Amino acid sequence: MNKIFDNKQEFTELYRDAVMSISGKSVEAASDLDRFNALAKLVAEKARTVATKSDARATAEGKKRVYYFSIEFLIGRLLDNYLLNFGVRDMVAEALDDMGFDLSVIENQEPDPALGNGGLGRLAACFLDSMAAEGIAGYGNGMRYRYGLFKQEIVNGSQVEATDEWLTHGYPWEVRRQDKAVTIKFGGHVEGFEENDRTFYRTVDTQNILAVPYDIPVVGYAGETVNKLRVWAAEPVEEHFDLEAFNRGDYALADAERAEAEAISAILYPNDAGEHGRLLRLKQEYLFVSAGIYSLLDTFEKEHGENWELLPQFVAIHTNDTHPAMCGPELMRILIDEKKLEWDDAWNIVTQVVSYTNHTILPEALEKWPIGTFSKLLPRVYQIIDEISRRWHESFDTTQEGWQERLRQTAILWDGEIRMANLSVICSHSVNGVAKIHSDIIKNIVLKDFYALTPEKFNNKTNGISHRRFFAEANPTYAKLVTEAIGDGWLKDAFELEKLKEFQNDTEFLKAVGASKRANKERLAAYVKAETGLVIDPNTVFDVQVKRFHAYKRQLMNIMKVMDIYNRRIADPNFHVTPTTFIFSGKAASSYTFAKETIRLINSVADVINNDPRVNEVMKVCFIPNFRVSNAQLIYPAAEISEQISTAGKEASGTSNMKLMMNGAITLGTLDGANIEIADLAGRENEAIFGLTAPEVEQLWASNSYFAWDTLNGDRERLGRVMDELKDNTFAGLSGNFESIYNELMNNNDPDLVMADFRSYVDAWEKLTNSYGDQETWNRKALLNTASSGWFSSDRTIREYRDEIWHA
């Protein structure tokens, strides 16, 4: 363990100096925010010292460097995690306590960086953590969003998007690297020129933007390796303040150039319903791709000169979904136009360096760009893509039966659009899915024609999570219990959690597991009361569904279950309901009306149920606003039921299922995504599986035999009652009825099979909660989930990427 402070005395002296340096005050007179900034800066400085040594070691050992490109990195708060990884968390907490301060209070001053939103960004952050822990020279490359997605507020039950001003007080972990800034060119036109009997191309009359990098340290467990996450901010190349416009009162115009440039890195996922939003998204994607590739080539050239043929030996570029799909053509452009390589040589390099993770099952969700928009904004990159497409067409064996359809399915350019997933596959030497079922669907459905042509490219890498953050850091009471039982080796090797199986029949240990869960429920209840004013009872079952809102994730089915239970309890006060708190959290995309209506429905149902004394002793509904990493770390440890209820065949993997499993929650879910592997590892008897399987769903739609009206009419008493309540004012008191949800299900034939799985789901929930009274058995199942969760550590996933894709 590479500890950054030798003892409490050394830390105390350094910390007092740091507080004085940044605030001009003694530690006693400083604010909590000052105390946080000083501690974070102190740890960050130590981390950067280790990072310099890590980088030098990578160079000396000739390590292959891995560059992980992702539009999102949901890194969460860093202070507690880095104190843990450097092995000094307890010592720092004690030293601060000696000074009269609480480490947790100081840590709560840290903002959640708005650099991501959902599972894609959190996965990327977990992977960076694990690359550093495994000693891989691995670096994140993304965008520095000034405001992120949005801060979610709930007003009259509805989601309202507010600005997430996470940078208001600065961000002590980052360092601006002006010396590494890159000029990015948009628009203009391409012209050719002759040089050494070859024709080269350049883009002229461009609009230039400066991409400025900010580096954030990534501290690996044990503190031996510190890598970096580099995020790019968009700025004007030259400061141009129009003094004349300012003096005549046109203040917006005076600084318009800066505002236009900075808009590129202002918001994560700008609304792309209109042309301006689409252009902004495309600019974002190109800026972080182009800047990142220039940056990594600069590093390579300093170490290996212009020996570009060595690039595959020393560099791996991994693209996290299709947002960085331009990595292939942009690397081609630079190698051909600027490094003067021949096409075939450049292509040989690109297709050995680039690899691609697909996260999408739904073909309609695969990213596409209109050719007109793309070619106008990025004319030379489009020419490169067009040439890749032409050569792909020429490579087809037209003697094979069905070649025309296969070409249509695999074409990059088709029907006036650029298909970014197809571009990613063609430019990559490896294509992976993120759970076994997902990878099978990719090979058999989504990208089946590519798989038929190049099966050797395709592989599975089931997602993983950082067990140090989401277990050791998030759940200190349970982690302490585990360490006392099996030692602390599990922090390095999560597979050691399997040793917990030896305690499954230890009554006292199982009681301690239950006591830890109770403490976490009390902690979450206190947070909920402080944030929302709602009082929830830790004596009830905490039934949790926390994730991005989407129709296929079926938060709607969950709240319909709650409505059904409520109806039955009102109709029959003797109907048994295991006392339960139904906990929801997550954001809906600002333009996704159906998902936002589902949030409104949940809060409207909560408004009725939570104010109805006839049911308050047995049920409450809780929506926790503004789901993010910091409150997720309170929710996961408190959960007892993990709701993973997506339509089978639609969830690529999921990662909240893994975090909840690791913290001892029992999965109530469909056989979808990584739920299948969870059930296989922990044992089907320790989960609650229900609903149609992916093959059954496929068969149902293929046979044209499913009709939502038949399902509704077959269950008028319960399902029919719930559906009627969407329109009959039962839950309209807060902000109106929900005809749009009703119409989506009935007019579109229940596209996510909410009604088809409804009774199976409610029955499974009742059976599971009815077993809650046997606490020893429940705690045993919880323990066995934790004991079986080590396989879901992102350390394991990253080792598979390292050995089988990156060869690093």
TrEMBL record:
E.C. number: 2.4.1.1
- Tell me, what is one Gene Ontology molecular-function annotation carried by this entry? pyridoxal phosphate binding
Modified positions (N6-(pyridoxal phosphate)lysine) are K659
CDD domains in UniProt: GT35_Glycogen_Phosphorylase
| Catalytic reaction equation(s) | [(1->4)-alpha-D-glucosyl](n) + phosphate = [(1->4)-alpha-D-glucosyl](n-1) + alpha-D-glucose 1-phosphate
InterPro entries in the record: Glycg_phsphrylas, Glyco_trans_35, Pyridoxal_P_attach_site
Q: What class of enzyme is it?
A: transferase
Q: What is the protein's known function?
A: Phosphorylase is an important allosteric enzyme in carbohydrate metabolism. Enzymes from different sources differ in their regulatory mechanisms and in their natural substrates. However, all known phosphorylases share catalytic and structural properties. Allosteric enzyme that catalyzes the rate-limiting step in glycogen catabolism, the phosphorolytic cleavage of glycogen to produce glucose-1-phosphate, and plays a central role in maintaining cellular and organismal glucose homeostasis.
Q: What is this protein called?
A: Alpha-1,4 glucan phosphorylase
- Its encoding gene is what? glgP
